[in-house]
Amino acid sequence: MTDLLARAYDPEEFRKQGHALIDRLADYLGTVESYPANPYETPDASLAAFRKLLGERAGADEIFAGVIDHSVHLHNPRYMGHQVVPPAPLAALGDVAASLLNTGMAIFEMGRAGTAMERIVIEEFARMLRLAPEAGGFLTSGGSLANLTALLAARSRQWPEGDVWQMGSHAIRPCLLVNEQAHYCIDRAVRIMGWGAEGIIHVPTDRELRMRTELIDELVVDARKRGLTPIAIVGSACTTSTGTFDHIDALADAAARNKLWLHIDGAHGAAVRLDPDRQHLTAGLERADSVAVDFHKMLLSPAITTGLFFRDGTDAYRTFQQRAEYLLTAESSEEDWSNIARRSFECTKRMLGLRTFTLLSVYGPELFRDYVVRVGELGRELGRQVRRHPELELFMEPDVNIVCFRFGHPTLSATARDGLNQLIRTTLTESGQIYLVQTRIDGEVYLRCTLTNAFTTSADLSDMLARVASVGHELLQLRGNLRE
Ligand SMILES: Cc1ncc(COP(=O)(O)O)c(C=O)c1O
């Protein structure tokens, strides 16, 4: 044993570092409004700052302070950027315990506590989201991986004998139908599975970018005529860019008529099932064969924590028909809930369930409902404020906490308006005071907010819109001056 090793594992050193860190984080939470929402810096500046810390052999406390200073502040109510929740602090504490214990979760023998909690979290959320009574599933590392895993299960149900697993799928040419606005990870999943560009059929959308479900039957017939084998429909609840919910009931009808698997990417919006006022948005979710739900978007957990639910929980055992003799010794696909690697892509996995289990136990399911209701109200409020503003244009009435709008001016061409909105976003981002993002809808630039911070107020929203308009005017003025 070296002195250095002994020091790195010393419980008293850990206690000191831990207390200092918790004090620092609690102070941070208490004063986060005084931080800029987005302390803008270039990648090179960030790299230099951390090289300097290492060069100086900075201590733990100095490093943690540096990490806070160089980060975007999700806990600041003026954070309105990407769809990542400021986690409930207790869930973050659980991560410290999980990291220290580091038990991994491939098999029960190794990850007992995590495995038990994960099953309970899945059962509780299947009930809270009102999925089918026989629903089951597991937690996995992100929506992208959950979507890929669900599609592998769909493929496996189509060819249950394992022939695709053994022979590949080039002779069969599988494909799926999806909203062209779906998250890019669906396209990636198709290509990872080796289906190529022909494996993804985009269903045209309506004005609010909802799949036109009445076109599905025709698209399936056409795909079959071309020698493809459609195996699934993927619906979005909701789309990333605009927060649009596909009509799940109509998708479930189309899937049943055409004997296709229905997967719903509910990474962002499936949680609206917890809001009594918004349940219509996901009507039919219980009919989907599989549903992905990101707990790090709308369910208060640190990234990344995703639930993958199957209507028939035993479908999850179809996905991987592989065997790893040293780990999974039970007979092939028989149900074996406690050895999660049988169903999950990951082998070693973090103790993901602890984050949600702690919140469920300490605060109860109402906490999740309160959050979803609150950020949904903020979405509506921002929609109202944009509509009232003479120079701002709302893309669609927000159903959830994603809101897209743009600054317009009657004198601007479409290209100039795009350029101006892009510049507004860059100027605001570089000012650091507000964090919002941008998206393209039908090729045109919109500003996009995701209201993930439950402490954002109506005044924060009006202040943000006033800044958008004022920067818009300044830029227009500058443009006018340059022309003169
Ligand atoms: C609808 C949707 N699906 C999937 C993803 C990817 O999820 P993750 O980042 O957890 O992999 C996102 C992320 O923004 C999303 O909005």
From TrEMBL:
Coiled coil: none annotated. Its cofactor is pyridoxal 5'-phosphate. Keywords: Decarboxylase, Lyase, Pyridoxal phosphate. The keyword Signal does not apply. This is L-2,4-diaminobutyrate decarboxylase. It is an enzyme of class 4 (lyase). The keyword Cytoplasm does not apply. It comes from the Bacteria. It holds the Pfam family Pyridoxal_deC. One of its GO terms (molecular function) is pyridoxal phosphate binding. InterPro entries: Aromatic_deC, PyrdxlP-dep_de-COase, PyrdxlP-dep_Trfase, PyrdxlP-dep_Trfase_major, PyrdxlP-dep_Trfase_small. GO terms for biological process: amino acid metabolic process; carboxylic acid metabolic process. Belongs to the group II decarboxylase family. SUPFAM superfamilies: PLP-dependent transferases. One of its GO terms (cellular component) is cytoplasm. Its EC number is 4.1.1.86. The modification N6-(pyridoxal phosphate)lysine is found at K297.
